[in-house]
Amino acid sequence: MASPLKCDLCDNPATVHLTQIVNHKVHKVDLCESCAQAKGVTDPSGFSLADLLLKASLNPEPTAPAGLRCEHCGYAPDDFKKSGRFGCPQCYETFTDLLEPMLDNMHKGTAHTGKIPERALQRKQLHDRLHELESELQSAIKAERYEDAAKFRDEIVQVRQEAGLSTAS
Amino acid sequence: MPLDIDKLLSTPAELTDNSTAKCPVVLMTRIRLARNLSTHCFPGRADDGERKEIFNRCREAIMATSSMKRGMSVAVDELAPLQRQVLVERHLISRELSAAKSGAGAAINKDQSVSVMINEEDHLRIQVLRNGFQLKRTWTAINALDTALESSLDYAFSPRLGYVTACPTNLGTGMRASAMMHLPALVIAGQMEKVVRAVNQLGMVVRGLFGEGSDASGSMFQISNQTTLGESEPDIVKRLHNVLQSIVDHELNARAKLLETDPAKLPDKIGRAYGILKHGHVISSSEAMNLLSLVRLGVDLGYLPDEYRTVVDRLFIEAQPGHILHRADKPKLESDERDRLRADLLRSEFANFPTPGYPTAGNN
């Protein structure tokens, strides 16, 4: 006889079994009664199956280089495994190898196709332009093209103003 | 303006007083967006000082938007436990936020259709809710608020992963759109399992209690999108709208079929529910949900005038435990005392209800 299923979150026997089909993929979560209760499975407003699936998908040890930590917040892969949450936006770059295999199971696609914060984009464009102008300014000074240099400097002041940055460089 | 619970409860609200969006089957539409500041740790990782800084910065930006005109804001630790419970029961804050550490709070607009939680799981959980089935309007409203906030806050955003969130399950749009549906006929006809399976196959989630008959759930089910990455917001809204519309049709068909095959069954259930609500003296929270659910069905079937649907929807909220305690001005009561006060409230409200007219009575 097959041995009884174990809870995905602890080792107790599982008595609550959830099945969900997303994009033709079947996802199964088995929980013991206390984990089901703690996760709010019995509460109509409170629980996220995606969250449970995430925890369950982490059960095999995540493969990340030993000692890897997020430079900004100090999070390690173990912290993610424990909480199912990252520590800061930077973690997404640090732990990209850990994240990639999960995304495919979790979402409809792996690339964002929705709304873009226009202001952030605009700010990025201004920063890129600033970078470009600064390097052109350096080249102009090197080549002793002082008229061009003055033009670039004026433009830098203007772009810095647009980006809301201090104009003193 | 700081949050004053009594003032909040005495002001007409979208969910309890708005009768312009009367809708059978769908009680409420809700969309939330998860957003974070690019420069800070997520709330779960941030220390107290950072959380307070995030709270102040976000609160200032939120209160400056036009959606928050004459709105209120509050830090969770300034609220008594019962006040938090009242806000949870009104869907204005989550259970997680009500249990959050310092530096967490919410901003709520005048008619309680907009609530922005600060330092819940993400720095911002923006929520707009509307009475009835209004997905597109809700999206338009929340999209405008989100754009207004973005003009003063630097969101964490990745061109490939979209809005960056504490939990990878919210990546991309950060959007969860949902509807609270009232499906008594599908429950009575034993068809909910089939509906759940079909909805799951379409990448949507059904949450609710699947007891026997309509026990303990009031036949209420929340249906929402499961995935947030790889599909645009308007596409998610459109897909969800189509799924919900098809469930509405199934529920209406199930009602018609029940009336046809067993004409006395629904009027009997509805009449009994009406009787208990009008004359009962001890009513538990789950019993109240089930009885009100049947009376709402009675309104949908034309046994009671349409305007009573709004009263029933208000009572769904006001009959919950936190609201009963708040009304009695007691932080704690034994449950039998609470059940008695709940029955008092329901009796006094139902004293103003007309007697239901059952179209088929006596004609069979």
UniProtKB/TrEMBL annotation, chain A:
InterPro entries: UVR_dom (IPR001943), UVR_dom_sf (IPR036876), YacH (IPR025542). The keyword DNA-binding does not apply. Residues 127-162 form the UVR domain. The keyword DNA damage applies. Keywords: DNA damage, SOS response. PROSITE patterns: UVR. It comes from the Bacteria. This is UvrB/UvrC motif-containing protein.
UniProtKB/TrEMBL annotation, chain B:
InterPro entries: Arg_Kinase, ATP-guanido_PTrfase, ATP-guanido_PTrfase_AS, ATP-guanido_PTrfase_cat, Gln_synth/guanido_kin_cat_dom. The keyword Glycoprotein does not apply. SUPFAM superfamilies: Glutamine synthetase/guanido kinase (SSF55931). CDD domains: bacterial_phosphagen_kinase (cd07930). Residues 25-254 form the Phosphagen kinase C-terminal domain. The keyword Transmembrane does not apply. It is an enzyme of class 2 (transferase). PROSITE patterns: PHOSPHAGEN_KINASE, PHOSPHAGEN_KINASE_C. Pfam families: ATP-gua_Ptrans. Keywords: ATP-binding, Kinase, Nucleotide-binding, Transferase. It comes from Actomonas aquatica. Belongs to the ATP:guanido phosphotransferase family. Its EC number is 2.7.14.1. GO terms for molecular function: protein arginine kinase activity. This is Protein arginine kinase. It comes from the Bacteria. ATP binds at residues 28-32, 91, 125, 176-180, 207-212.
